[in-house]
Design goal:
single chain; mainly alpha; 1 helix; 90% helix
Length: 29
């Protein structure tokens, strides 16, 4: 059970990072 929250945290962290990059690219261009 303790492994699930860690996986979700990493997954959402990666998603947030990707969204940040997309937003930055959109704002830049």
């Amino acid at each position: 059970m303790p492994e699930l929250p860690n996986l979700f945290c990493g997954f959402f962290e990666g998603l947030r990072g990707m969204i940040c990059i997309v937003v930055k690219l959109t704002l830049c261009y």
